[in-house]
Specification:
The chain is mainly β. It has one domain: Immunoglobulins (Immunoglobulin-like), CATH 2.60.40.10. Helices cover about 5% and strands about 40% of the residues. It contains 2 helices and 11 strands, in the order H-E-E-E-E-E-E-E-E-E-E-E-H. The strands form 2 sheets. Strands 1, 3, 5, 8, 10 and 11 form a 6-stranded mixed beta sheet that branches. The longest helix is centred in the N-terminal third of the chain and has 7 residues, at about 15-20. The two termini are about 30 Å apart. The relative contact order is 0.27.
């Protein structure tokens, strides 16, 4: 089940290995140059919106969430960090990878799929150092860049995930941070507000 609703702390991870792997990714950049999607050189949807990607904790508790990246001004952007804008509940961060590929009927973009890392034919890479060159709104037949965030449910924890995403990057000589208001959520009692169809999800935090 995937809930996608377009609307106009470091993670609590389990295990020392998960914490060590996430250390460089989870620090929200302290840059004053934070901008919303559509408000700077690097974008995601290319416009400010809130999308909730929510999956049940039952069955396969491991999920890969996909987040597109693109550029708005024609100048390459180089990723320097990736993490949650705010984390909620309890979960395990399994890792963050990235890929740039040409989508086809057999190799499609990812919103949320079971397992991590995802089974895709394209090479996956560390997002830090990734150069994003594909323009926003390019359409079919053009390269596509996406972040792939792996989250796992924790038994009895009540759900959790990322409330928004912070992507630090360099554009030319500038250090900037893209704030994406997509939420990556594993459902449970703690995150019920994101997972019920009869209510709006929580407002993105400041």
């Amino acid at each position: 089940m995937l809930r996608r609703l377009p609307l106009g702390i470091a993670a609590t991870a389990v295990g020392a290995l998960a914490l060590a792997a996430a250390a460089t990714l989870l620090s929200r950049p302290a840059s004053p140059s934070v901008h919303p999607d559509g408000g700077g050189p690097l974008g995601s949807a290319g416009e400010a919106q809130q999308v909730v990607n929510a999956v049940p904790a039952e069955g396969n508790p491991v999920t890969t969430f996909g987040i597109p990246l693109c550029i708005t001004d024609g100048n390459p952007s180089v990723i320097t960090s990736v993490g949650p804008w705010k984390s909620v509940g309890v979960f395990t961060l399994l890792g963050v990878r990235a890929r740039t590929f040409l989508p086809t009927a057999q190799d499609t973009v990812i919103y949320a799929v079971d397992g991590y890392p995802p089974s895709v034919p394209d090479p996956l890479q560390d997002p830090v150092g990734l150069k994003v060159t594909n323009p926003c709104g390019s359409g079919p037949g053009t390269p596509y860049t996406e972040l792939l965030v792996g989250l796992s449910a924790v038994d009895g924890a009540g759900g959790g995930g990322w409330q928004g995403i912070a992507v630090g990057y360099k554009s030319g000589s500038r250090d900037l941070t893209l704030r994406i208001t997509d939420d990556l959520i594993i459902c449970g009692p703690t995150t019920a507000a994101w997972c019920t169809s009869d209510s709006a999800p929580p407002t993105p935090p400041n």
